[in-house]
């Protein structure tokens, strides 16, 4: 579908109507909370190596908070099991805690509220919109699931946690901890890739995203569109959403107004930018709809 020049110009700055009607702060509320969450988690990890304040030891793969709370990435644990290494009891407890958290809130909450690479892919998406770049060829949607399977096979074949060799999330941490040069190059590559291919990394390639999406299938916390009758088809929510295909069934369908796809990252950007106040955070059983 051809997009007129004025519409394309407007979609390069989505959320302007919401800013006019609700004010800048309210129209960026969930974005600001998300950035606070991502940066606080990073700061907690960095406080030890940078300032000697060891509230949290480790990284997003495996950590210990205040000396008592173990947290383990269940995807890393799965690779470890595939590699033939039986983890310590603490790692199993840590993975169970993380699993329970994301099974309840939605797996891809990790992608939008925790993962530091999201700062890079969001920056690339923002730049793409502002520069009006057309997207290059996106990989098939199933690619990240194939990559997820491949990392388990390679882990089994090599006896190592295979994804850690190339994981941009770990590169991000190592780059900040140790100023590691090659890590920055990998992160720059993710930025350039997402600048040229819309939602290329998180939406199509990252096996961590695929893993956490599987966890989110039955999650309770959801975004819903109870006021979908008010939608004026401005397309701002589609422009900012990192997984825009998840919006249409809830917004334009006649069934449930709840966004049920586990690919939704529960980022809340659609809630922020909609000038008609269509979306809300809620739960999967909330079927209220004005339409
Ligand atoms: S729900 Fe409708 S009015 Fe709201 S941002 Fe999306 S397209 Fe625009
Ligand atoms: S539907 Fe809304 S909450 Fe879900 S990923 Fe898209 S913008 Fe974020």
From TrEMBL:
<dbReference type="InterPro" id="IPR011886">
    <property type="entry name" value="NapH_MauN"/>
</dbReference>
<dbReference type="InterPro" id="IPR017900">
    <property type="entry name" value="4Fe4S_Fe_S_CS"/>
</dbReference>
<keyword id="KW-0472">Membrane</keyword>
<dbReference type="GO" id="GO:0005886">
    <property type="term" value="C:plasma membrane"/>
</dbReference>
<keyword id="KW-0479">Metal-binding</keyword>
<keyword id="KW-0411">Iron-sulfur</keyword>
<dbReference type="Pfam" id="PF12838">
    <property type="entry name" value="Fer4_7"/>
</dbReference>
<feature type="transmembrane region" description="Helical">
    <location>
        <begin position="146"/>
        <end position="165"/>
    </location>
</feature>
<feature type="transmembrane region" description="Helical">
    <location>
        <begin position="177"/>
        <end position="195"/>
    </location>
</feature>
<dbReference type="GO" id="GO:0051539">
    <property type="term" value="F:4 iron, 4 sulfur cluster binding"/>
</dbReference>
<feature type="transmembrane region" description="Helical">
    <location>
        <begin position="86"/>
        <end position="105"/>
    </location>
</feature>
<feature type="domain" description="4Fe-4S ferredoxin-type">
    <location>
        <begin position="255"/>
        <end position="284"/>
    </location>
</feature>
<keyword id="KW-1133">Transmembrane helix</keyword>
<keyword id="KW-0812">Transmembrane</keyword>
<feature type="domain" description="4Fe-4S ferredoxin-type">
    <location>
        <begin position="221"/>
        <end position="252"/>
    </location>
</feature>
<keyword id="KW-0408">Iron</keyword>
<dbReference type="InterPro" id="IPR017896">
    <property type="entry name" value="4Fe4S_Fe-S-bd"/>
</dbReference>
<keyword id="KW-0677">Repeat</keyword>
<protein>
    <submittedName>
        <fullName>Ferredoxin-type protein NapH</fullName>
    </submittedName>
</protein>
<keyword id="KW-0813">Transport</keyword>
<dbReference type="InterPro" id="IPR051684">
    <property type="entry name" value="Electron_Trans/Redox"/>
</dbReference>
<keyword id="KW-0249">Electron transport</keyword>
<dbReference type="GO" id="GO:0046872">
    <property type="term" value="F:metal ion binding"/>
</dbReference>
<feature type="transmembrane region" description="Helical">
    <location>
        <begin position="39"/>
        <end position="56"/>
    </location>
</feature>
<dbReference type="Pfam" id="PF12801">
    <property type="entry name" value="Fer4_5"/>
</dbReference>
<keyword id="KW-0004">4Fe-4S</keyword>
